[in-house]
Amino acid sequence: MPIARAAKRATVRLGAVVLAGALLAACGSGDSSDSSDSAGGKVTLNVDLFGSFGFKEAGLYEEYQKLNPDVTIKQSDTQDEADYWKSLQTRLAGGGGLADVQGVEVGRIASVTQQQADKFQDLKEFGADKLKGEFAEAKWSAATTKDGKILGLGTDVGPEAMCYRTDLFEQAGLPTDREELAKKWATWDGYLELGKEYKKKAPAKSAWLDSVGSLYGIMIGQEKERYYDASGELIYEKNPAVKEAWDTSVAAAEAGLSAKLDQWSPQWNQAFAAGSFATIPCPAWMLGYVKGQAGDAGKGKWDIAKLPGGAGNWGGSYLSIPRAAKHKEEAYKLIEWLTAPAQQAKVFQKQGNFPSSTGAIETIAGAKDEYFSGAPIGQIFGEAAKESPVQVLGVHDQNVMQQITNALSEVERKGVSSDRAWGTAKKGVDNVIG
Fold this sequence. Notes:
Blueprint: E1 7-8, E2 43-50, H1 60-67, E3 71-78, H2 81-94, E4 101-105, H3 109-115, H4 137-142, E5 153-165, H5 166-171, H6 178-184, H7 188-201, E6 207-209, H8 212-220, H9 240-254, H10 266-274, E7 277-283, H11 286-294, E8 302-305, E9 313-320, H12 328-338, H13 341-351, E10 354-355, H14 358-363, H15 377-387, H16 397-414, H17 418-433
Parallel strand pairs: 2-3, 2-4, 6-7
Antiparallel strand pairs: 4-9, 5-7, 5-8, 5-9, 5-10
Signal peptide: 1-25
InterPro entries: Bact_solute-bd_prot1, SBP
Protein name: Extracellular solute-binding protein
């Protein structure tokens, strides 16, 4: 995200500083016959994204326009990735209303490469194949079709950690040292037990975590196989990793540890500043979101510790160019520059989005974040990125995850039983994927 990406990216992106809803009308038209907007050769590139990719916040658009004075960049955003993807599918089907650059969450990239390759530009035609060695292999291969088409350049990945409010921990009598906490919640059972301790002395109107949906998302990101196996078979119903993440999330809901907030909702956004939860599962791209929602008043109140249960990845995104884009060559030059090591490093330093560029990863190894109490984010997320499994991605990964987290919300907010909610999740998956 940028999710949730997804989870969201969650999709990240996985993964979110602007209003949700329909995509802005600033998207480029489907006319690909002209490569300039005027006789003078000036070009307006429309970039359509979801969540917070960090380009604008890190000043990259402004920098690129200074380097290329004939180029103007206009970005449009949708907060919720699911809304963004639905709208994008509508416009891809019609061939019009598409931007020059479209963001794609990692949970959707298999759909692009396996089902929609004819809708997106093969970036190899612009020389993208020469960049292969600059990206992590898993990131590169996920956006490459079986016949060698390159349909996206990777922006970030989503190595996972746990963000927490030190001031709320202190009020509840819990330790605040990140190393001590990492030991206490080395397992997810340990995390829930510490949450129960927090609940006993928690400040008024403050829960242990934001939502069980975010707990599920971070746990499932620790697994290599989730919803599909390597052969492309849908396996979520029989995958013990999915069951464990589901059961742990249900246990958190039934223990009353959640603030019962839907991620990306206005209420969730407001809760960052209000202190409505003490911990939030935190892929790297979430750091910028926390800063944006908690504001200056949150500086120094947050910290980051190693994730319970081992390393994982949640979210991460790509930049792709639709076949119907108006300015494909100019768009490619922009996305190649945005995803280059120097620019990925700048986004990380500003927003926390962890690079997919191997060169950028090396340059940010010693980075710390004063907003998060000086946490060594380069080390924490760098180690998580190295240890994370290479995940098997399926064509409906994001859809399956959305149905499961929707069902968990029923457990969390309405007290629906685990069995009944799981049945709802399965029906939802069947309806979505046909």
